[in-house]
Amino acid sequence: MKPDFTSEFFSQNRERLRKLFTGTAPIVLTAHGIMQRNSDVTYTFRQDSSFWYLTGIDKPDIILVMDKVKEYLILPEREEVIQQFDGEYDIANLSQISGISDVLDEKNGWKQLSARLKRVQHVATLAAPLPYIQRHGIYTNPARIRLHERLKSVNSDLELLDLRHHLTRLRVVKQPQELDVMQSAINLTIEAMKKVQRSRERYKHEYEIEADITSLFKRKGSDHAFSPIVASGASACTIHHVANSNVVDPNGLLVLDIGAEVSNYAADITRTYAIGEPTKRQRMIFDAVHEVQKFALSELRAGVLIKEYEKKVEQFMGEKLRELGLIKLIEKTQVRKYYPHATSHFLGLDTHDVGEYDRPLAPGMVVTCEPGIYIPEEGIGVRIEDDILITSDGIRNLSEKLPVAL
User: Fold this and answer.
1) Tens digits of per-residue pLDDT, 145-191?
2) Which residue, 145, 171, 197, sits at the end of a domain?
3) 39: burial class by Cβ within 10 Å (0-12, 13-18, 19+)?
4) Can you tell me the distance from the alpha carbon of 248 to that of 251, in angstroms, rounded to the nearest whole number?
5) Strands 269-274 and 265-266
6) Nearest 5 degrees, angle CA 169-CA 162-CA 308?
7) Which domain holds residue 337?
8) Per residue in 363-379, is it b (16+ CB within 10 Å) or e — as a string?
9) Is the domain of 159 the same as that of 209?
10) What residues of the chain score a pLDDT lower than 70?
11) Residue 17 shares a structural domain with residue 161
12) 317: helix, coil or strand?
């Protein structure tokens, strides 16, 4: 099978980064590390998206060095037992994928890098995240912190320059190859959605639906871009319901929020389906969400500031919530009681991809559009989500082949 990306794609991305950075400091970036699941069992490895964007390499703990016109990879030192269990690095393959001819072992690579670090004042790298992100309740990969500590151990006076802004500017505008792969992920997600829709009345548990989606993704050489949300009835009022263990409510609505991942690029689509004949109230809420999405889509275009766009959608949502009798005043806290999340986020190598929310949207950016209404006291949750490409003359709905229907 022909790979989705050639070494030329990654080489060009590195060259684009050099031009955008403009500085003379060496650029040093690290791959992600493998994370512990329990005891000596690990989670499935997922590469740091920016490292992959520059190299195409899906192996852990490798270092990328870009120093003027020179570039090379440094392999990590590994215990012999790890090599026996996981295999040795295929150096020729790493060079073929990345377009980087110089691949050095730990000793020689750090010897070369250290000699350079001792003669400079600055190193450009990616800032490390906090070890624990309170807002999301997650622990982060420590690979960047480990790299920073090692750089400082070579030269304690080094000032680390943060490249996150530069990588964001590059990654947020998708190239044609990226859009092709994203469309493949979206098409596969649509196929899975349609399969569930056709068979929705036969499912007894949420996990049966997840199993069918997973099976389809796996058979097509893909996997989930994020933990799938299969939420029946009142479960949909938990926006990130990922347990998927409840009985399917034959009289309730089913919210499916899923996305395939193809070559590390994500799809992210949500549909809400009635299992049986929907009630008048269920249909009213569904129609309200659909109207909000149509309004939001009418506001999306190049030049729009997402922060301003979100305010307009919030106002329109408030009008719908008032019509439904859920609120009396269109006021932020009242609206957010039933609509607690944003309408749009960037999409790409990460499901919530890099992007700057205070800069205007531009052609080539891909965002989601996903309004929802959640009413715990009624046990009803509805969300509709599509993946939208910003173009020079408007937008293109990349997931438009999946009808929006209850």
Assistant:
1) 999 999 999 999 999 999 999 999 999 999 999 999 999 999 999 99
2) 171
3) exposed
4) 9
5) unpaired
6) 45
7) 173-397
8) bbbbbbbbbbbbbeeee
9) no
10) 1-2, 81, 84
11) yes
12) helix
